[in-house]
Design goal:
8-stranded mixed β-sheet; mainly beta
Length: 153
């Protein structure tokens, strides 16, 4: 049995894909959550809206992802079969060490941390889990920099 030192990990957020951000925000406002930050990407055609209960900003948040309708006027994305739930996200002390530990245990790294910042893996029940480097990104290094994506993340 390999020994791995305990690694600090911190829950960040869960991501939900939404078709009507205003209606969804109103719903979560009724529950007591408030918008704490927003990021709109014209180039990527999406919005990220983060909500949290009072005092829970940067502790436990819900990320609403709104993929804008296509510019060509075609139908917007529809989410079924759980597609509206995106992923769990955790901040980690050393993304390379954790990914190596996961690989050694037989876990597929679906989106390797090529940038020293972000990786995605899936649970045995196929739940997507995002791993984000805490603080400064790790320097880009091999074998991670050359690894390809595997499956969906």
């Amino acid at each position: 049995m390999e020994f791995y030192p305990k690694m600090a990990i911190q829950y960040l957020h869960s991501m939900l894909r939404v078709t009507d951000p205003d209606a969804t925000i109103r719903f979560f406002n009724l529950l007591g959550l408030e918008e704490v930050r927003r990021y709109d990407s014209e180039q990527g055609r999406f919005s990220l809206i983060f909500l949290a209960a009072p005092g829970q900003k940067d502790v436990a948040e819900v990320e609403l992802t709104h993929n804008w309708p296509p510019e060509d006027g075609s139908a917007p994305e529809q989410y079924d079969g759980g597609r509206n739930f995106g992923h769990l996200a955790y901040s980690v002390d050393n993304i390379y060490d954790l990914c190596q530990k996961l690989m050694d245990a037989g876990v597929t790294i679906n989106r390797p941390p090529r940038d020293g910042h972000m990786a995605f893996v899936r649970s045995p029940d196929n739940i997507s889990v995002e791993l984000l480097q805490s603080g400064e990104n790790q320097p880009v290094q091999e074998p991670w920099a050359s690894m390809e994506n595997i499956g969906e993340w």
